[in-house]
Automatic annotation (TrEMBL), chains A, B:
The keyword DNA-binding applies. This is Transcriptional regulator, GntR family. Keywords: DNA-binding, Transcription, Transcription regulation. Residues 9-79 form the HTH gntR-type domain. InterPro entries: GntR_C, TF_FadR/GntR_C, Tscrpt_reg_HTH_GntR, WH-like_DNA-bd_sf, WH_DNA-bd_sf. SMART domains: FCD (SM00895), HTH_GNTR (SM00345). It comes from the Bacteria. The keyword Transport does not apply. The lineage of its organism: Bacteria, Pseudomonadati, Pseudomonadota, Alphaproteobacteria, Rhodobacterales.
Length: 242, 242
DNA sequence: GCTGTCTAAAATGTCAGACAATTAAACGCG
DNA sequence: CGCGTTTAATTGTCTGACATTTTAGACAGC
């Protein structure tokens, strides 16, 4: 392993890239140990500090883990669903907030994707998923629930819907769309009337999934999309007036 | 800013987390400058090396950029779509390969999501999107095209379909599902007969989008899903026999 | 006053060397 | 054989130095 001496970029970035490429291309397998920091420093002909900075970059991307001690070192890490989930949600949320994505676009994306899950979820949802949905609906109906908690519960309900499809890849990809909407949803003030409508639609969705009636689920989701969009518009208008 | 001295984790990880939280929570705005490395070292009461390792972690997540020179330093970075795309694709691909996700699951997720885009794409696709699809279909029909190139073109076709929906959030979320399938698709040997069927379905999809007939697009996509699944199964069987 | 040049300062990037902390294996001893 | 102890390997942290890059400001000349 050598690096391009002509390249102007940071050495630590170049080294990180070289190792990253080796991992991604499959040259290195999960749990395989990288050479020690000193060995890498020798190989790349840089100091140990530079190697360390490169390794920290990889650690930040969950590509490696490090262990101290005699048999320690840096090991190629198996990317876990949970970590990827968390990272995906963080990135999606940042992407939306930093680029000022409008409510409409995010909302449309979210519900389009959710509707894609509905048929699968109606076929495969387990009693567990249904129970979670019912529990969240119940929670949403509780008096005195803050807007923020209402949103939390809303996300939990929809996550159960998505997970009901029993496809982890689907759940992963949708996590970004559903959770990243939350900051935008939190701008909305939910009146009791708003909540009643949403709870009604949630109930229809849960009923449809329980009956494995995917057409009804789709209809209710479509209505929920439209309703959420109007709520969002109102919130944006109210925000603009202030 | 202080860090928990009781915590056993790496100092650089703790410091990275502290700064990351400040950025994500919105305490720091885009292009705002962080204190210099020496100042951070003083604030957190650690050495400059440790601060640097923390900053490299953040740089790896595209949260900051650094500039050298008198007015240089670390600045909060606006996360760009392109970078987020690239990262999302890398992560999704790794997630699938490292966790041995089966072809069926990935395929189901991909096409379920694509079908969610079809109605929007049929309403909004521009002549550009249609032209890209036609061009890729043409490319797929070229004789002597390697399997890998065929897959590349397939991905480009589907990306145009998704982008046709004109919703960047949708494009972003789907990029992971579509592109991450590529390594799995590359395991398949596409006979001329296979290719003809796929090209036929692609043509039907492009025609349907051009006519803004979303029902036809959905039907063709459903058929393509089923066909891809059978191809995948055959490939897995052939792989198992060897 | 304007302009171009030079210099100093500030900041990141890199290096070398040291020591601390941790861990597992090797070793010795009863 | 079993059980502490030592030892070696490795990462984590610190210190100080120097290189490189970039800008602001001083300064000279017109």
């Amino acid at each position: 392993m050598k690096i391009d001496p002509k390249n102007k970029a940071d050495l630590s970035a170049q080294i990180a890239k070289a190792i990253r490429d080796a991992i991604i291309s499959g040259d290195m397998n999960v749990d395989e140990r990288l050479p020690s920091e000193s060995e890498l420093a020798d190989q790349f002909e840089v100091s140990r500090s530079t190697v360390r900075e490169a390794l920290k970059r990889l650690a930040a991307q969950n590509l490696i883990r490090t262990q101290r001690g005699a048999t320690g070192g840096a090991f190629v890490r198996r990317l876990s669903y949970d970590e990827a989930y968390a990272q995906h949600i963080t990135t999606s949320t940042l992407l939306l907030s930093m680029n000022a994505v409008d409510f409409e676009t995010a909302c449309e994306a979210r519900f389009a994707l959710e509707r894609a899950c509905a048929p699968l979820s109606s076929a495969r949802r387990t009693p567990d998923h249904l129970a979670t949905m019912r529990a969240e609906i119940h929670r949403q109906a509780q008096p005195g629930l803050s807007d923020e908690r209402f949103c939390d519960s809303d996300v939990a309900f929809h996550r159960a819907l998505v997970d009901g499809a029993g496809n982890p890849v689907l759940s992963y990809q949708l996590a970004g769309a559903v959770e990243a909407m939350q900051p935008l949803m939190n701008m909305i003030t939910f009146t009791q009337r708003n909540r009643d409508v949403i709870i009604g639609l949630h109930t229809r969705i849960a009923d449809a999934l329980e009956m494995q009636n995917s057409a009804d689920a789709d209809t209710a989701l479509a209505e929920l999309t439209a309703y959420t969009l109007t709520l969002g518009e109102e919130a944006m208008e109210a925000r603009a007036r202030r």
